[in-house]
Amino acid sequence: MRNMISLVCAAAVAVVTAVPVFGAEVTIKGEVVDIACATSKGAGGKGDGHAACALSCAKRGQPVGILNDEAIYEVTGDFAANNNAKLLDFVAKSVTITGEVTEQDGKKLLNIKTIRAN
User: Fold this and answer.
1) Can you count the helices (H) and strands (E) in the chain?
2) CB of 69 within 8 A of CB of 28?
3) Which of 52, 63, 72, 103 gets the most CB atoms within 10 Å of its CB?
4) 67 and 97 in contact (C-beta within 8 Å)?
5) What are the structural domains, with CATH classification, of the chain?
6) Using an 8 Å Cβ cutoff, are 103 and 62 in contact?
7) Alpha helices in 1-118 (DSSP H)
8) Which H or E run includes 116?
9) Beta bridge partners of 97
10) What is the pLDDT of residues 38-61, one digit of tens each?
11) Rounded to an integer, what distance in angstroms lies between the CA atom of residue 44 and that of residue 92?
12) C-alpha of 11 from chain center
């Protein structure tokens, strides 16, 4: 009987860990940043002092993300389309976003549903 319970538990764990991470709708507050600069330049890659560079990178279609104290969430989907066209007014600004977060290859991905400046 113990072997049967152990087998069932092991199978349940295997199934749960094999299932891909599905998106959970969340609300995130943070700054819209150019991911490359935000990760390589630290504090120099965000904020008002970096706004012109971040906007230039976003216009060229470079990956844009939402930076907060917990992580950088790379923007995907409709808001990343057309060289980040829907995000350009928010680059280097503090925003509140609702959207769906998933994870792939260790990166947090964010499909934005709504965005507003703080």
Assistant:
1) 4, 5
2) no
3) 72
4) no
5) 21-117 (2.40.50)
6) no
7) 2-18, 35-40, 51-59, 81-84
8) strand 107-117
9) 28, 115
10) 999 888 888 899 999 999 999 999
11) 12
12) 32
